[in-house]
């Protein structure tokens, strides 16, 4: 049976003031009632607070000012710690929530579901727009999604997700890297371990897919810490006995290779060959022979040599 839509906390980890007003107003304009809109302000200036000032009369808004700044992942986790709703709707400070976003996602929320994903539009810096709609069924069992679907159709972008709060409550007791990039994917994978995944094919939000964001970093320490999104769910699934160990180890190997190849591509895009070799050496220290398999993609090797002779 569907849950009450007013048991939703909209959670905004605020940092960039440029589009924050538009983002917040799209949350305030939802057709469904929500329990609260919680803003955790990590901005180094007072711009977020200034934008909020004219809207704080709305009783749904709660505001937290972080001094000093927490960092991206830690800011998300603070929001989860403070939220009062049963369902969490994280929303990035530069995205736009369609008016019926919460209403559409909550149509799928029941006790068998731990995660709902909606369709979204990607707004590119050149003005072009791409619709992101995956060929997913309305409902997929959590174990099936974790083992079989996720390697093909990753769970990404918090702004298009609705997450059952107990998924985050479990993570709050664990050591999550404060500068983690792929927290959305970690949360999505952990959600699969607690229930099914529902899919809403209509467009529920717009996501600004601009270059230069934090997710494009080539900081080796950040990227290695970010690999927790692969190792954490694997370890948790082993403890739960979700599947036989060989099956889970095969999943882990696939995901390490997939993640590493994505990182290698980042280094090649910026032609940082020294950083790439440092990353690969550190990756080998952590994952052993899996790291060699990650780098041995013919496509990446060809791209590397093409970069050398530019």
UniProtKB/TrEMBL annotation:
Residues 9-167 form the Glycosyltransferase 2-like domain. One of its GO terms (molecular function) is hexosyltransferase activity. It holds the Pfam family Glycos_transf_2. This is Glycosyltransferase 2-like domain-containing protein. It comes from Desulfovibrio subterraneus.
């Amino acid at each position: 049976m569907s849950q009450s839509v007013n048991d939703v906390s909209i959670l905004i980890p605020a940092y960039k003031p440029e589009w924050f007003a538009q983002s917040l107003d799209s949350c305030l304009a939802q057709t469904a009632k929500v329990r609260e809109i919680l803003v955790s302000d990590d901005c180094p200036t007072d711009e977020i607070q200034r934008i909020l000032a004219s809207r704080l009369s709305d009783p749904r808004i709660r505001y937290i000012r972080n001094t000093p700044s927490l960092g991206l992942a830690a800011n998300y986790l603070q929001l989860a710690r403070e939220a009062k709703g049963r369902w969490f709707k994280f929303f990035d400070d530069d995205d736009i929530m369609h008016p019926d976003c919460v209403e559409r996602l909550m149509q799928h929320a029941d006790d068998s579901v731990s995660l709902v994903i909606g369709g979204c539009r990607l707004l590119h810096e050149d003005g072009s727009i791409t619709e992101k709609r995956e060929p997913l069924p309305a409902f997929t069992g959590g174990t099936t999604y974790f083992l079989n679907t996720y390697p093909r159709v990753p769970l990404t972008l918090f702004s298009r997700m609705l997450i059952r709060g107990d998924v985050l409550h479990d993570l709050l007791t664990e050591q999550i890297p404060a500068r983690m990039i792929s927290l959305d994917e970690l949360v999505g994978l952990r959600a699969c371990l607690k229930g099914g995944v529902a899919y809403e094919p209509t467009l529920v939000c717009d996501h600004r897919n601009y270059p230069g964001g934090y997710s494009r970093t080539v900081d080796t320490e950040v990227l290695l810490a970010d690999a927790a999104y692969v190792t954490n769910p694997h370890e948790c699934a082993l403890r739960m006995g979700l599947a036989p160990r060989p099956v889970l180890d095969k999943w882990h190997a696939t995901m390490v290779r997939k993640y590493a190849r994505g990182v290698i591509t980042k280094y090649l895009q910026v032609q940082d060959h020294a950083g790439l070799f440092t990353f690969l050496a550190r990756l080998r220290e952590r994952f052993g022979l899996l790291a060699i398999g990650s780098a041995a993609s013919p496509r990446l090797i060809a791209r590397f040599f093409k970069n050398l002779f530019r």
